[in-house]
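note to self: dont lose this again. the chain is below, predicted strucutre after it. 329 aa total, dont forget to put it in the shared folder this time
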Amino acid sequence: MECAEETPVEVESPLPPTVLTLSNCPGTTPGTPQSKNQLKKQRRLAEYAELRKLRREKERERKKQKRREAKELGLPLRSGPSRKELKARQISAGDSSQPALSVAIDLDYDDLMQERDIAKCVKQCLRIYTINRRCPHPGKLHFTGIRRNGHIHESFKKNDGWENWHVEYHFDRTHREVFEKAQLVYLTCESEQVLEKIQPGVTYVIGGLVDHNHFKGLCHTRATEAGLSTARLPLSEHVDMKTRSVLSTYHVFELLTKVAAGQDWTAAILDTIPMRKGAKAKGSNQAKEDQEPEQPLEQGEASRELEKLKQTEARASSASESESQSQDS
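---
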């Protein structure tokens, strides 16, 4: 007898893991055709971008004219250090073998942000550069993970002179490729390790992700999967806040620069974070309670009810006395 040929059994291959992108992220909706108002807005933005250089030239001429007028009147030309002095500070800090602070902004999130969020991210990078530039002791600043000709790179190009910033740009190279793993500490609010002080020889990585909490914990997940050390800022150890302890990228950088300059954590946090977070120094409420004399827990309504009860008892006792006197008479 001829044996029946066995049909090969198809083995299903395991599906590759889903890559989290902006299109399949929870909380996002697919794009829709643009309306007439959106098209008009795009045209206005394009015209605004074309005239940007002309406006900058006019602004420079106005500043030059103001400086000439101030010089003729014998007034001071500037209130702070000049650009040359600020540039010299950065160069001297960059040439030092052991800078007081080394920070890398992780910009390897090109496909996870919308256009407006990318613009906000680059604007925060500009503010970080300004904070570091005007710091008395500038730190070493790195922008890593920039994809060449990507969305973030194109947004950088919209800022005149960005390539002349005293910043280490790393195109198509992440912080893991630029630095040794032992030298990196990724700052995330989900970390269990608390950053007590700034360590020399360590580069602190800040995630340059503006996502409005769509990718919660993504920076921490990436850092732990890469085997990097993580740490969180000691916010809850020094201040009490009304809102969640999530800071923007430039707030984290500004806080690090102040602590690296010698300021204590409590003062640096209170000087840096926005007023809307309602931060108060740890122990300030307790000290205030210790200074105030102890008062009964129930005042207000309880004291008024007690007073009414006393008045009622007084009227009742006076009425009973008058009745007894009338009976005696």
